[in-house]
Structure formats: C-alpha cells, structure tokens
Write a sequence for this structure.
C-alpha cells in the first residue's frame, strides 16, 4: 500500500529504462525517405536478425525517467562540493550556451581549413592565453583529459632523449603523494616508476632525490602545489638537480588554480605541464568528463608536439602535419574543442585581474577552513596552505569513527565529502578544496557541520556508523558488486 | 568578478580570522623570485555581453551544417539530435557533478552509465561494455593494448581500410610497448582473406577490422574473424553504432572486442570533440577492460543501487599496475548517448540506418552517371562512399563550398595519396533537395572542367 512520506519519492527504488519499455512505443519519428530513392538490400549474412533491445518508450517517458534520475545526484549547482584536487568550481552558464552555438557545435573537424577559420582562431587564442598563464613556450590542446596530457608529455620526453641523446632513458620519479594517474601514465609511456618518499613536511625530500638521480632517469613528475596543498618551496633547486642529471621535469597541473596570476610553472623551470580545463578553467565535469588536458612545453620539446600543430601561414590559420619528429596523434581529431570554447569564454570573462582573483580567493578560502577546523580535526601541516587543505580524521578514529563514516555523514547534511584517503601518506585523510566559488557563509556552514559531526562522534556514534540516512540509497555493498559483476541489463 | 562571491571586505575579515594581515603572508612559501611582479598579459575581464559578442564573431567565421549542407564525414557525422537530448543533458544534475566517488549521492549518474553499458552491449551484441573512452581512436588503442596483454603476443594487424586517424592514434599510444603494428593493403577499399592470411603468425595478437570500413563499405567480417580465431588471435572490430539497426551485430560474428565512435549517438560534431569512445567485449575480458565500469548492488536496506565496480583495475587504486591510465572519461557524452538511444529505440535506429543507406545509394548512383565522375568501389555502402572527381578533389570541394555545399573530405586531407578522391558522407539529415542540389552542381562542375583530365579509376 502506498503511503505518503517526505523522502519516499527520492528513496523509493528506481526502475531501469528497460523496465519501462513496452513493445511498439517510441520517442522518435524518422523523417520519411522519399519513395523515389532506391531501397538497399544487404546480403542476408550482413542483415541484422534480432533488433538490439533498446528501450521502447515515448519521449515523455524518457524525459520523466531521466529527470527523476537526475535529482539523485549531488552537483555543484545544488551545494558545496569540496572534492580535493578536482576543483569543483562554478560552471558559468554562458560557456555552455556558447559551446552549443551552431557555429561551434555543428562544424566538422574534417571540413576545410578555409571553412573553419573561426574555430582555429579560437584555439589559437586559447593557446596563447594558456601559454601566458603557464609561462611556457608552446602548447598542444589535443589531450582529452589530464591523464592523457601526462602520457602525451612523457611520450615527448622519450622522443626528446631519443632524438637528442640517441636513446631513451628508463625511469620516471614521482613522490609518494602523486595522483594515481601519474604512475599509470609512466608505465603507458614505457618507463619504470620510481617512488620517492616525501619528507616529514610533506615536500620532496631533496636528499632522497639526489640519491636516485642518474643517467637512467628520464624525468621527475610532480604536482605543484602538491597534493597536500603545499607549494614545493625548493622547486628551483629540485628542477635544477634534475636538469643537471640530464632529466626533464613535468608538472601535473591539477592544482593550477592556486597559481593563476601568482606564479608560473615555466618560470619555475618545468619543461612541460598539463592543465585540466575542467578544473581550473571552469568547464563542467559532466559526471566524469569530458575534460580537456592541454600540455604546455618549453621550446626544446616543440619538435615533438602531437600533429597537427596550429600555425599562422599567410595570415590564415593552418594545421601543420609535416613534422618529422612529432610523437604522432593522441586524439582522433584536435582534442575536445567544445571544452576549449568554454575555457576561452571563461578566461575572457575573468581577464588578467580575474585570474589572480581566482587564485587569491581559493587560497583564502582554503586557509579559512584550515583555521576554523583546526580545533576539531588534526592538521598535520598547520601552516599556510595553497588552494586546498588536508585534514586528518585521526582524532575521530581514536574515538571509533573513521574518515569513511564522516564522509558518509556529510551526505546527510547535504554537502559532498572531500576527497578521502588521498594522498595516501596522510592517515584518515580528507582533502578539502573549497575553490574561489564559495562564499564565506557556505564555508561557515561547512565548518558548523564538521563540528557537529565531531560532537556526534561521542554523542551519537551509531548515527555516523550507519550514515547516510537521507540519501536516495544508503551504504552500498561494493564488494558484492565486484563479485557478482552485474554490469548490464538482461531481460 | 561575477563568479566570485566574496567581496574585498569579506576577504579582509577572513584574513583576520586566519591571523594574517595581508594575503601575501599566505604565499610566503613561494620563493620571492617566482612571484609574478606584474599582471598576466591577458585582456581585462569582459562583461557577459562582450564575451558573447567576441565568441559569436568567431563562430560566424565557420561554415556549419545548419547553414551549409554538409556531406563531410570521415569519423564525424551530422546525425539528428532530438531536442530532448539537449534539454536533459543541460540539467546541472548531470553536467556539474563529477566522477561518482560517493555512490549514495550519484545514483543518477551511475544508473545512466549502467543503462549506457547495457545499450552498447545490445547494439554490438556483446556481453560487457565500459563507461566510455575519449574517442574511437583511443578506444582502439586501448583494445589493442588489451589483446597485447591478454595473448602475450606482439603483433597487431591493422589493415589499410581502417580510419587513418585511428591507426595514427593507436600507433602513437602504443609506441613505447614492445608491439608491432602491420598494415594490409586493400583492393578497391576491401580486404581479401588471402592477404590477411599471409600476415598472420604465431605472434599475431589481434586483427582489427572496421565495420563499415573507412570507405563506407560493409564488408563481411565473419571470415576474417574466423581466420583470426583459427590462428588463436583475437578480433577487434571498429563498428559504427548508428549502423547497428540494419547491420548484423559484430558479436554475432564472434568478435572479441568491439570499439567505436559514439559521437553520432546524440553528440554534436563540435569540430572533433568531445566525442565518445565506445568499448565492449566478451565477458571473459570484462576484468581486463580499461576505464570505469558500473555494476549493480544493494544498499543496507536491500534496495537496488549502482556503484563503480572492479576499481582495482583502475589507476587510483592500482597505480602503476592499472589496466589503463584513463581517469576522467567522456561521461556527459555517454549520458547524451543514453538519452539518444532511449528516445530512438530499436525502430528508430533501424529507420535511421535505412535512411542513411537509401540516401547514400541515391547520391552515389546519380553521381556515378555524371561524365568524368566515378564511384570505383563496389559493395554495399552504409553512409559514406568514395567519389572520384574529374580534376582535383580539393578544387571540387572549394567549388561546391562556394555554392553552399560542404561536399565531402578530399582524401589528400586525410594523408592519403589520392588527389582525385573525395569521401562523401550522407546522413539521414540530408534532404532530397540537398542531394539533388549536389548532383546538379556536380554536373555543372563536370561541364566547366570538361577540359580537365578525367581521373583514372
């Protein structure tokens, strides 16, 4: 028997679109093909025998189904989303409107250069802005995400050593606080991974670095500010050391938000860095992409950039393919152009002063949270941080509540938890990145919630251990999902 | 700064709470010599109106498929996008969320991906699919790497009628592995069993086939898959999802892995990206697949729910032992594809397929009748064909473009050495009026260029 309940709708089990399907229904009517056009008969072996069992639903059924699914998501337009290293900032609406303009959305990558000069000019303008922001010399917009940017740069490093010194080197160094994509990208680029333990202050241990540097080391790959939200103070010395050993230095630009208009990777001596347009430059995260991971490089790496390279020739924009030392292509076309459109619109909106404003506000917001949370939560490095602050749930763990439980309890209060258990070197880690988009009031509310949860650790531990209570579903059995492996619907 | 709420007063108050008197005290860890002394050399911030004016001016410098009739394909196609796809995909709930790391508040995204995986399996006749790759080229590269790891063999056969961009991307992304990629020449755009057989060895990890192939020809892939299997090699098929309403599913021919470009499933052409790499495989490869996968489970109250599963394959857990480095994928493009497939259903997919084939057949037949023009490759075509132009294909493109038709892709632009070849794509969006305009202009071109040397077949 149905009974009214405020959360019933949200918490009732959803149906799959396949379960709403009824034979003969459809949400689409194809434009008729004129009768005079020939019919095509395929050989019977090539003719589809059983139609794919796609759902059969009317348009309004599909719209209602997906609208109801949508409200089961947390998202930036709803509330705070301080997911560290992901830079969940506001995504301006005008950017999406512009990307959908037919002059951008309805153009083919394979129409002629003469008919796509506007798109090429846009990419050129974006490239120039990103080169200025990073202090580098050249750029490729081709990588589709940060991880692909990493791999692209490492392939260029390999090509550089091959071309300039006759053979590639063998290994790439990362600190133990590195993002998981770093080691995976290193392996894909044919290198061994050498993991460097961080010093007690969370920085690269310069002594340890010296010990592993030799002629086999192709590169050092570091995130700056690092995943603890701290600027690598000795970055100039570190980069010099690697260069002296004949290696190259790569900056994972996931945390570039903290540096905009304040300092530039190029000036720090980095040879290459990627940036995540879906983080720093406000393009929507889309539930896991599409992103875009342009890679900016110093002059010595320019010959190895992916083809084609955008150039100006006789006052026209031109794709240059004839580049014998290029690593090749990492994307079928020119990268995620629709994301480039949004990023350029954002840069134009913010302007030069705005870039610095982003960094300053994101740094102030993170430090504000650091100071306000320090009473209740352990902060290993309680020193000024950059755009994100790392706190630990170790005090709460000592009282029986893990960071995992705190994260789940935050869901009941309507905020998305920070990144948890990363970086791996901080126990019970919570990595909080508020971004510049949040007002002081939102931060104050978050602090109140975190303090309330800290009280609940002693007063209502069961509430935490069984959280969340108010979400569309409650804790899910992830182990059984991997065991039974139901990854598609079968009727 | 309209996207930053805190005012200078707010910041002053916050700095006092933090216990510093000036912002610069917070960035003392940055060496003085590295701190920028002057503002970035970028223009001043613009109003929303100014930004729109500037950007739309750029947009107007492009010809587009709504203002010209577009027959440009080669991996990106002007397929119909129902308005409901745009309306649903523009919901912030889908667009402004990120990777569903907290499944309790990401059931919308997770269920959509589960439905997506199910639909992709249905299209290709496969047992397992992932949540998406960047595009078809990168999906092919990942498939190649999977077969390389799984068979422990080192050679991949990629015939010459596979999209040249996909071949290039695969070559680039696998260039550091101990892996050889070899080509197989085609005759009139088609493969023959004997030339593939010649290349097979005990080191062949996989044979790659495109279905329909790069020239739009629907080849019978079954004998090639059997040939690969008889050699204990795997078969990777690059398939067009839009053709799956009319063409037999690759799974029915025992394909091991199917990849494809999902742009046509409700995603705009957008000058080449963001696109949607599709990746499907037999169940036995599910645990070796790259990228994210969503599975069904239950919550503590016994309700059905969805989670990211098999995460121990992934980089954030497995680090240097991960099956791939992909992290952020093409989530919103997969979401759009899910809406698209739900709306069109099986009958819509069949109708779109037939509409593409009939329009293609009509234009191909009519153009082949024009003096000097020819369509040298026979066999059934799906939505694309090779046209030989009397004269230079790039000149023909310019002639047509000046008259409002983007007539195709000159092969010379695809890095292929054929100045007369033009790859012409015809989707269901092209009207008979547009087809007839193409034919009539081609006739004019034929007359005007009657003096030109006819293309040799």
């Amino acid at each position: 028997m149905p009974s009214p309940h405020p959360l019933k709708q949200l918490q009732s089990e959803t149906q799959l679109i396949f379960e709403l399907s009824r034979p003969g229904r459809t949400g689409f009517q194809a434009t008729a093909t004129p009768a005079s056009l020939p019919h095509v008969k395929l050989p019977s072996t090539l003719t589809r025998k059983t139609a794919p069992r796609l759902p059969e639903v009317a348009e309004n059924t599909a719209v209602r189904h997906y609208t109801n699914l949508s409200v089961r998501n947390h998202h930036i337009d709803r509330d705070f989303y301080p997911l560290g290293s992901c830079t969940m900032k506001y995504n301006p609406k005008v950017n999406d409107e512009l990307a959908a303009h037919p002059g951008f959305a309805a153009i083919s990558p394979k129409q002629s250069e003469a008919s796509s000069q506007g798109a090429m000019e846009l990419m050129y303008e974006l490239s120039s802005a990103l080169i200025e922001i990073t202090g580098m010399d050249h750029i490729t917009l081709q990588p589709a995400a940060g991880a692909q940017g990493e791999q692209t740069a490492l392939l260029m490093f390999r090509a550089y050593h091959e071309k300039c010194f006759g053979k590639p080197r063998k290994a790439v160094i990362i600190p133990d606080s590195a993002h998981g994509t770093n080691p995976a990208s290193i392996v894909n680029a044919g290198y061994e991974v050498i993991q460097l333990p961080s010093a007690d202050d969370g920085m690269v241990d310069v002594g340890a670095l010296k010990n592993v540097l030799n002629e086999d080391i192709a590169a050092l790959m570091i995130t700056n500010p690092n995943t603890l939200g701290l600027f690598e103070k000795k970055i100039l010395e570190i980069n010099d050391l690697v260069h002296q050993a004949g290696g190259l230095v790569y900056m994972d630009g996931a945390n570039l938000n903290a540096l905009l208009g304040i300092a530039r990777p190029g000036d720090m001596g980095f040879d290459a860095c990627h940036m995540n347009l879906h983080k720093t430059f406000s393009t929507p995260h889309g539930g896991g992409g599409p992103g875009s991971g342009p890679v900016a490089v110093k002059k010595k790496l320019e010959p190895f950039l992916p083809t084609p390279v955008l150039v100006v020739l006789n006052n026209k924009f031109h794709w240059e393919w004839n580049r014998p030392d290029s690593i090749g292509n990492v994307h079928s076309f020119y990268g995620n152009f629709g994301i480039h459109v949004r990023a350029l619109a954002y840069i134009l909106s913010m302007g030069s002063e705005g870039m610095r404003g982003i960094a300053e506000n994101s740094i102030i917001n993170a430090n504000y949270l650091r100071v306000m949370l320090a009473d209740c939560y352990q902060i290993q490095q309680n020193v000024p941080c950059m755009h994100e602050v790392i706190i630990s749930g170790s005090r709460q763990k000592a009282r029986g509540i893990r960071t995992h439980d705190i994260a789940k309890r935050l869901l009941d209060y309507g905020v998305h938890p920070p990144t948890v258990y990363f970086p791996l070197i901080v126990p019970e880690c919570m990595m909080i990145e508020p971004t510049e988009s949040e007002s002081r009031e939102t931060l104050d509310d978050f602090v109140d919630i975190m303090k309330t949860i800290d009280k609940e650790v002693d007063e209502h531990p069961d509430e935490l251990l069984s959280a969340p209570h108010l979400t569309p579903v409650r804790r899910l059995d992830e182990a059984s999902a991997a065991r039974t492996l139901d990854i598609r619907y079968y009727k | 700064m309209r996207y930053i709420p805190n005012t200078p007063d707010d910041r002053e108050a916050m700095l006092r709470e933090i216990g510093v008197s000036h912002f610069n005290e917070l960035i003392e860890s940055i060496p003085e010599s590295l701190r920028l002394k002057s503002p970035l050399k970028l223009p001043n911030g613009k109003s929303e109106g100014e930004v729109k004016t500037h950007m739309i001016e750029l947009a107007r410098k492009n010809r587009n498929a709504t203002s010209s009739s577009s027959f440009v394909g080669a991996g990106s196609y002007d397929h119909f996008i129902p308005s409901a796809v745009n309306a649903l995909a523009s919901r912030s709930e889908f667009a402004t969320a990120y990777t569903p790391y907290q499944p309790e508040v990401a059931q919308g995204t997770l269920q959509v991906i589960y439905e997506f995986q199910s639909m992709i399996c249905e299209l290709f006749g496969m047992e397992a699919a992932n949540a998406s790759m960047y595009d078809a080229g990168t999906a092919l590269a990942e498939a190649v790497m999977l077969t390389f790891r799984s068979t422990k063999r080192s050679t991949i056969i990629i015939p010459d009628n596979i999209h040249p961009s996909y071949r290039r991307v695969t070559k680039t992304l696998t260039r550091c592995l101990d892996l050889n990629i070899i080509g197989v020449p085609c005759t009139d755009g088609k493969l023959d069993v004997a030339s593939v057989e010649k290349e097979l060895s005990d080191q062949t990890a996989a044979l790659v086939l495109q279905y329909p192939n790069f020239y739009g020809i629907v080849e019978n892939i079954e004998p090639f898959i059997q040939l690969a299997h008889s050699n204990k090699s795997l078969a990777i098929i690059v398939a067009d999802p839009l053709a799956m309403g009319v063409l037999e599913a690759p799974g029915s021919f025992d394909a091991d892995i199917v990849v494809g470009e999902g742009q046509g499933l409700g995603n705009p052409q957008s000058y080449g990206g963001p696109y949607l790499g599709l990746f499907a495989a037999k169940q036995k490869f599910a645990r070796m697949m790259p990228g994210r996968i969503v599975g069904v489970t239950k919550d503590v109250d016994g309700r059905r729910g969805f989670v990211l599963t098999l995460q121990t394959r992934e980089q954030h857990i497995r680090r240097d032992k991960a099956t791939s480095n992909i992290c952020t994928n093409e989530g919103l493009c997969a979401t759009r594809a899910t809406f698209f497939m739900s709306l069109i259903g099986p009958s819509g997919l069949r109708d779109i397929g037939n509409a593409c084939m009939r329009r293609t057949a009509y234009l191909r037949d009519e153009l082949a009748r024009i003096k000097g023009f020819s369509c040298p490759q026979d066999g059934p075509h799906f939505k694309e064909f090779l046209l030989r132009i009397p004269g230079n294909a790039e000149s023909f493109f310019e002639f047509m473009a000046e008259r409002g038709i983007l007539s195709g892709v000159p092969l010379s632009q695809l890095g292929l050495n054929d100045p007369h070849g033009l790859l012409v794509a015809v989707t269901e969006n092209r009207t008979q009026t547009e087809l007839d305009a193409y034919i009539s202009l081609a006739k004019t071109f034929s007359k005007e260029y009657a003096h030109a040397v006819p293309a040799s077949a």
